[in-house]
Design a protein that fits this description.
Length: 163
Amino acid sequence: MSRVWRLGDNVNTDQIIPGRYNVTTDRAHLARHCLCEHRPEFAPQVAPGDALVAGRNFGCGSSREHAAVALQATGIACIVAVSYARIFYRNAINIGLPIFIAPEAASALQDGAELAVNIATGEFRDLTTGAVFQAEPLPEFVQRIVAAGGVIALVRQQGSLAI
């Protein structure tokens, strides 16, 4: 079960992790400062398995991987949004962070709602209202990346660059 953390449209990478914290790749450091200005209660209160729900164009801004890493390091289970900035979407996949395009779910899910997430099927069940939402399931190769913990981990497991 996940708690929903709801954000709006056009949340950029500097809101996810301000540039002054991007001087390290230390995941714990990045997690501590994730959304620190946009939603200060997020980092201290987020729990492993929670879900981030956002509007349009989530992750716009810079191409730094730090934003996706900071979110993943907080322990969130997945991100559900109406749409994503292209580079953020790919960065999330590359590090193995499940990321779904689900406009209906992203519009309906409310902050603080209890959510059951099925990463494999893309089903989101709002336990607060009983509503069920379906995102396009992650392609099989993306599910392998997520299961491995990222594309680099998958390549190491396979011993080649074939994905």
